[in-house]
Amino acid sequence: MVTAAAAPVWSVDPRTGKRREQVAVEATAAEVDAAVRAAHAARPALADRTARAALLRRAAELLDATGARVIEAADAETALGPGRLTGELARTTYQLRACADAVDEGAFLDVRIDHADPSLTPPRPDLRRHRIPLGPVAVYAASNFPLAFSVPGGDTASALAAGCPVVVKAHPDHPATSELVAALLRRAAADTGLPEGVVGLVHGFDAGVELVRHPLIAAAGFTGSVRGGRALFDAAAARPHPIPFHGELGSLNPVVVTEAAAAERAAEIGAGLAASMTLGVGQFCVKPGLVLVPEGPDGDRLLTALTAAVSDTEAGVLLDHRMRDAFVDGVRARAGLPGVEAPVTPGAGGDHTVAPGFLTLPAARLLDDPDGYALLLEECFGPVTVVLRHSGDGAVGAVLAHLPGNLTATLQLSAEEGAGTDPAGRGAHLLAEVTALAGRVVVNGWPTGVAVAPAQHHGGPYPATTSTATSVGATAIERWLRPVAYQDTPPALLPPELREENPLGLPRRVDGRPEPA
Amino acid sequence: MVTAAAAPVWSVDPRTGKRREQVAVEATAAEVDAAVRAAHAARPALADRTARAALLRRAAELLDATGARVIEAADAETALGPGRLTGELARTTYQLRACADAVDEGAFLDVRIDHADPSLTPPRPDLRRHRIPLGPVAVYAASNFPLAFSVPGGDTASALAAGCPVVVKAHPDHPATSELVAALLRRAAADTGLPEGVVGLVHGFDAGVELVRHPLIAAAGFTGSVRGGRALFDAAAARPHPIPFHGELGSLNPVVVTEAAAAERAAEIGAGLAASMTLGVGQFCVKPGLVLVPEGPDGDRLLTALTAAVSDTEAGVLLDHRMRDAFVDGVRARAGLPGVEAPVTPGAGGDHTVAPGFLTLPAARLLDDPDGYALLLEECFGPVTVVLRHSGDGAVGAVLAHLPGNLTATLQLSAEEGAGTDPAGRGAHLLAEVTALAGRVVVNGWPTGVAVAPAQHHGGPYPATTSTATSVGATAIERWLRPVAYQDTPPALLPPELREENPLGLPRRVDGRPEPA
């Protein structure tokens, strides 16, 4: 058998399209296997919750301490800019520390104890249940968040918090950053007495496919495109032993502007929309991609404000040139549909940049020929949004009925609609309609900006996500666990989490009721 | 297009193999579609938690009131006997009432509120999250529980509790019982002011496949074979819009008997094993199917007791003649493997019955040729178990390493091992080993008998289940929900579950902490 030469992995400057340096080589099947085996071997060490919390906090410390270098590395290969990356680094370390706090509290263990009851028919045995780690998790890094949804990001932090080692498949848009921060995570492991195998890193498309198929991989987390995510989801489901695949794939993030809202706040909404859809050069999974704006003069004023603000927004660099080409092609295909207009034409800016813009179409045209306009209901990654001009409730409902699942849905309501005092009860009606379509509903705000908070939900009906779980917030930890119940198990053998005297001070439900703290 | 004549659905007496009556016809694709649409249309009515709880309690009342007829119908087509079916009916109504109690409490809504915090960077919006019903659920009834895991069973009860209408695919082993109890459930719906579409019923293999593929079906629950369950799981995953598929497929339910346990309790363990493996003619998904018994005189005494007890157990009727044939063939294939002995030969009893028995093999033989003995590590439905004689810890660990995932694992330990005072620490070591393999661990008891309790977990690594969820106990409700978060939503528009003043008195976490009751 002839072994092909190892394929080089290059760090590329998206501002020039030029290679910066060779960072690594793509992992062979044997290398993927070695990384997974090292992760698998690290499970017993990660079973110690105190060690897990220490690892997460040490990782945050090292990222903070190395912040300048990390931000420089990430900016060089993503062009996201030091401002955005400084915020993203803070988000990343906040997530790591929030996960450490969740580990300390232990609510995700969902401890339940039912004492034996010999008076029942049949007699009930003693049952004690908690959640245990699934095993090594494959993490697929996102292009658009080189830190917060990549090597040290939410999937990694939540998996480690759950007690699961990870093997990260690096995104080709930031391999140097990936290597740098993976080394920091491994140093954090060493500093806290854990094996370095708790965090593995592999590069390469084929390596990513090997990873999800590896028999010792127990679950996967993914943030990326519908096409790539679905292929990996299918591979996970087709395994001899299928595994949970938590993928965040794609989302249109519809916005509905009512006539009354436009009458009240046309300029504010237009400017807010422009800021949200162009933020980070439109490279957020929660970018508003479809906006229902009323016909008539108030809607026109909204578009005037949108036009002014988008026109004032500079061209920007996308994460890589393949995305730039896809954006230019995607915009061209959409703009070429009959009746579509481009008040501000999005597309190629300079040789390496793209210019933001937006497209408009009467909602009635789309409703007359939904198949012909199906492309407008697909996400287009980059600084573009599609505005459908609507004639009121009927048209809004009809358009919403055509939409796939979404991470978010946003309502722009008037004061009266928000207060529920309008005769039509429009706010409550619209809220119910968009709740069916999305995992997070935003009222009179914008979907960009996903707070890391216990009540957050970042997920939604397919294709927004492939599961009902969230990838942001403390409940993301629950993805990497499975319950196990112990029946009539002698106290001396029980894990400390399940002992009667609650030596770890965990929140728990006893005999069906929450135990007072 | 020529429409084939509707295929009849017969109720069959397994005690004679004869048809009793034609109960229904197999559902056409159009009929499946109509049932799903009726379920879908019933969603708004089920959104009312008070109505759901009333429905569940009314269903339990009607089942109790009609108990004699239900038991008679189920016995006639399953031969499970009035004693077992009386217990199963009690389990079924208990489940319905326990689900109603869970609906009243509302813990499964997992309400979380994070108040806005403008002092954070970036400022945190107000976020409020709860769980909402997924939509219509397809329930695939089990052969071996005509009530508790079928039309009015745990999947149906938990889905209705979650607010999801169901369409049940009846099992062909008890179509008359299915029609009878489905009518009771629909009457319960009518009695509580709900549309009858909250519970639909279809018959036929093809109807089952149509059901999991129907675009309006949002999730599925299944209890049955690995082959059937995997085919439906694959269909669920291959949909344009994949859906959660909670399948309970198959399990060996290994038992480990230590040398010290056999020395202390050989006769008791032998008799207990006989009772557990022959209970219900061995037709439980938690039947112990593989037992590791020590070599030597104490293990011999155990087998002597097992032999005596199994020999004293009468032949019984399986659920249908196809199962009887599969049992006879499965036992013959296993008994024919080199070195396998049959101290009590299982197989055909009379024309319509099967006789219980067990097979033995030295564990070393299996470990020398695991592929050659792979059949012994597959579930064989019916009153048979496989005893592997082991030489101690090394052999036990080696056999366990070959096992697939299981619903349960059982340890028979000595008093000293249970107390953790033996020098080898064998109890804790074995507990950790079998925890990796199973969803419920039983010590010094038997796996048959799955208590309906909040701390129960009925699930396990594949192929025991296709997800990490349980199908028994209150947490089964969580399978049919997805979270949705509301950001900066005006109080007047919020669902009552998420209002600040907590008008429904729900348990909730506020700003990251459980709120005192």
Automatic annotation (TrEMBL), chains A, B:
Record-linked InterPro entries: Ald_DH/histidinol_DH, Ald_DH_C, Ald_DH_N, Aldehyde_DH_dom, Aldehyde_DH_Superfamily, ALDH_KGSADH
- Whether Aminoacyl-tRNA synthetase counts among this entry's keywords is no
Keywords linked to the UniProt accession: Oxidoreductase
Skewed-composition ranges (Basic and acidic residues): 497-517
- Identify the stretch(es) annotated as Disordered: 488-517
Domain Aldehyde dehydrogenase per the UniProt entry, residue ranges: 10-390
The keyword Cell inner membrane appears for this protein: no
PANTHER family (UniProt xref): ALDEHYDE DEHYDROGENASE-RELATED, SUCCINATE-SEMIALDEHYDE DEHYDROGENASE, MITOCHONDRIAL
Q: What is this protein called?
A: Aldehyde dehydrogenase (NADP(+))
